[in-house]
Amino acid sequence: MILSVSRRTDIPGFYSDWFMKRLRAGFVYVRNPVNPRAVSRVPLSPENVDCIVFWTKDPRKLMPYLDEIDGMGYRYYFHFTVTGYGRDIERNMPDKRLITDSFTALSRRIGREKVILRYDPIFFTDRYSPAFHIKVFERLLFLLHAYTDKVIISFLDMYRRTVRNMSGIRLRSMTEADMRKLAAAFAGIAGKYGLKLETCAESIDLSVYGIGHARCIDGDLVERITGYGIRGKNGREAARPFCGCMKSVDIGQYDTCPRGCVYCYANSSAVPALKNNLSHDPESPLLCGPFEESEVKPRSGGAVSLKIDRF
């Protein structure tokens, strides 16, 4: 099983203590995002979990636990998002210098291949122009190119929740020509620093600039990290047509990240996210909210090791 921690909320940033308690307990309860009344029990032993994929904007609270995670026998890598947006967009972010410093510290600790830099989502306003993004991207890669092998970018998708959360932001239009012009500039910068550049779940073909389609949950990388073959490494997630990720089990929960990013697709608004964060119980097997033990069901399928053979 590939464990996703998490596309739905920043668990390393806000719920590291809870996550470690779940690893020690060997299981976690996960609420179904489509049917919130359904709660599944997911086994978390190293025998079940082939690799953990962490998603975060700030891993500092998880980093003190890495020695323990290693000692328990888990393997993992990080998607680490760093942008140039200010607090008008990312309202509860620490100073970006602290974030870039933690990126380098994490890379030194676990290796550059296991820390993937994400610059996303990209959108335009009067303040955040194409020239702004190019300047920030150049600066980020200057600072971080020695600490990662790959950069993933994506353009803003206007999900229903995103539309609501960004209602006060005056977006500038972005045409395909705009995307291509920005991609060409980014490709030149990434090439200068010897980094691979990919897009996340984008329909646009940017291969003419040397930009491929990403597999954020990447079976080939998982095999290199674990040292053994993985079943279904080319099996794709069904939710997004241009997503190249292999299947995974996500243990996060929507409306629980108090980061306050206005482009977020995982929060209906800042109010329930903050409320749920404040009511979070680190001793609970479920990230947030009440549940009835009698209603918890074992997860059917997808919660067993994908190991097929040793290299």
Name a few traits of the molecule.
13 strands, 311 residues, alpha/beta, 3-stranded mixed β-sheet
Describe this protein's structure:
Helix 5 runs parallel beside helix 7 (176-192). The two termini are 18 Å apart. This protein has helices at residues 11-14, 16-25, 66-71, 96-110, 130-144, 160-165, 176-192, 219-226, 270-279, and strands at residues 2-5, 27-31, 39-43, 51-56, 76-81, 115-122, 150-155, 196-199, 212-213, 228-230, 249-250, 296-298, 307-310. It has 9 helices and 13 strands.
Number of strands: 13
Unreliable runs? none
User: Shape from CA axes?
Assistant: globular
Please give the largest β-sheet. 8 strands, parallel
Our measurement of the CA-to-CA distance between the termini, rounded to an integer number of angstroms, reads 18 Å
**Sheet/helix structural class:** alpha/beta
pLDDT averaged over residues: 95
Amount of beta strand: 15-25%
Helical content (DSSP H or I, runs of 4+) = 25-40%
Order of helices and strands, N to C? EHHEEEHEHEHEHHEEHEEHEE
Cα gyration radius (Å): 19 Å
Number of helices: 9
Q: Biggest sheet: strands side by side, in what order?
A: 9-8-7-6-5-4-1-11
